[in-house]
Amino acid sequence: MANLLSDIKSLKAIITEQTRDYDYLKSIYDRMRATASILLTAAFGVIAYLYYNAPLGQKTSIGQRLFVPSEDYGKVIYFIAGGFFIYGVFKLMLLVFGDNPWMTTYENEKKDYSNDEAANLQYIKKRYDKCLNFNGKKYEERRVELKFLFFCLLISAIVLIVIKTLK
Hints:
Layout: H1 2-50, H2 62-65, H3 72-97, H4 117-166
Helix pairs in contact: 1-3, 1-4, 3-4
């Protein structure tokens, strides 16, 4: 009986820690989504700066409005930087508005419930283990992707701004 009570106490303590870990991981994930939204807003600001149309009344060609360089090597660099920038914007849009790969403990199978408190606590612990493992992997994948997209946008925006200012 004493052993069962100590098992129940330890399972409750473990579940409390798992709940804290789950909430912490969820808050980090939410901050990452907010960061992606800010990056997306910044990317649209860069687009507005780069491709703002000429004032009304001025007749300019599309090539002049897009500030495509006349040299061949400049065109290659311009289109590579523009391609990376567009790729970064679309991937950020998918990150912000795409499906959420988050798993909650309530989405797991609920077939192992019983009337035994220790068995139910063990079951809840397993559900938290499964969720924390899955969500941790998904968070790490998105974190790496967000870091890559940040540098992709940053470098391509710098290249495009330099090309525009040199033109």
